[in-house]
Amino acid sequence: MPGHRELKIITGNANPELARGICDHLGMTLSPTLVCTFSDGESRVEIGDNVRGDDVFVVQPTCAPVNHNILELCLMLDALKRASVGRVTAVIPYYGYARQDRKVVPRVPISAKLVADFISVSGVNRILTIDLHAGQIQAFFNIPVDNLFAAEVLLTYLKQFGDQAVVVSPDAGGTERARAYAKRIGAELAIIDKRRDTPNTAQAMRVIGDVKDKVAIVLDDMIDTGGTMMEASKVLSEKGASKVLACATHPVLSGPAIERMEQSHFSEIVVTDTIPLSEKARASGKFQVISVASLLAKAIHNIHTESSVSVLFSH
User: Fold this and answer.
1) pTM of the predicted model, to two decimals?
2) Does residue 194 have an active-site annotation?
3) Domain architecture of the chain: domains with CATH
4) 100 is annotated as contributing to ligand binding
5) Catalytic choice (8, 194, 214, 298)
6) Is 11 within any annotated ligand binding site?
7) 99 annotated binding-site participant
8) In sequence order, what DSSP letters do the residues of the chain get, joined into one string?
9) Which of 60, 113, 236, 244 has minimal CB crowding within 10 Å?
């Protein structure tokens, strides 16, 4: 019976610190797993525990190096399937390739769907993720997908600013997310009208809403190269915001992102640990990391005990 399956958690090399944090909240230890690389570059996976009939959760965000971490995840899932696991859930706090979810020009792949197929055929029974960039990715899987909201942990931190804050969407597409946060902390809403000239670059144009003498919180689901955020901090500072913060679930921080964040007008950059920060980012002093370990631990407990997961979707 599902209720009698033993709960086990394993992890690859993408974010073992988060996996250990989840285990701490659940009062358990990680199951031993060997995940390394052979001398010729091929990945090697070996599950150290007997998992026959167990309920296993594999914690592995598909962050950089993206392709390597996806392969590690698929190999762990295949190893569990061949070891007669009872049920396996892939815990993917950050889902790589999520921005390639449609054909925007001719003769390109829908990469987010292909990655979903890779993971599915590896033997997974369920997906647990946080703040998918595009909600429709859930339909790329023919298995249950629980898409949690990091708002549950981020709002606890942001509520300290209360009515002194204004939540700012860096573009029109993020307005719904920003409105939900603003409502929860009793803040005003503003939107930045921007023009994107080339991929991974953005130019902020003007602010729709009043930010003068307010704590402006620029909210997005991820910070990638940081161009959008940097321009947002500049225009908000020019419009008289007393303080400018950045808030994002996924600190992708690729290319010149860290340098841009250090040079920006942000006094603080609030992110979660869905993706581990590099040593360089940690050393900058601007980043405040809020852990999602407790949120994932609650979801894992509810899935394991066959309880409702929707109670965690209050956002």
Assistant:
1) 0.93
2) yes
3) 7-148 (3.40.50.2020), 152-291 (3.40.50.2020)
4) yes
5) 194
6) no
7) yes
8) -GGGSPEEEEE-SS-HHHHHHHHHHHT--PPPEEEEE-TTS-EEEEE-S--BT-EEEEE----SSHHHHHHHHHHHHHHHHHTTBSEEEEEESS-TTTT--S-SSTT---HHHHHHHHHHHTT-SEEEEES-SSGGGGGG-SS-EEEE-THHHHHHHHGGGGGGEEEEESSGGGHHHHHHHHHHHT-EEEEEEEE--STT--EEEEEES--TTSEEEEEEEEESSSHHHHHHHHHHHHTT-SEEEEEEEEE---TTHHHHHHHSS-SEEEEESSSPPPHHHHHHS-EEEE--HHHHHHHHHHHHTT--SGGG---
9) 113
